[in-house]
């Protein structure tokens, strides 16, 4: 994200990103500011990462259980034509 921020907001700087009336201000070319701001929310990033890992592990556990259950219950039985009589 930091690389994209530096590339788009600081280096390329499309016209739709610049707020009207602030064209040419020094803050748009301040790499250090963008570096500092990108790490302000590190707690949120860590919590998103941990939550994603927990959900992924739970889904893998569930997937493993369903695969084992289906494999254990798979039986081939001969067709009984007398049932239903």
Question: What would you say about this model in short?
Answer:
With 85 residues, this protein is an all-alpha fold. It is built from three helices and no strands.
Structural account:
The protein is an all-alpha fold and 85 residues long. The protein has 2 domains: 1-40, no CATH class; 41-71. 59% of the residues lie in helices and 0% in strands. The protein has 3 helices and no strands. Helix 1 (2-12) runs antiparallel to helix 2. The model has no long low-confidence stretch (mean pLDDT 78).
Q: Fraction of residues in helices?
A: 55-70%
The secondary-structure element order is HHH
Number of separate helices:
3
Structural class: mainly alpha
Give the mean pLDDT. 78
Domains (count): 2
**Unreliable residue runs:** none
Task: Present the secondary structure layout.
Blueprint: H1 2-12, H2 31-38, H3 42-72
Helix pairs in contact: 1-2
Keywords:
2 domains; mainly alpha; 0% strand; 85 residues
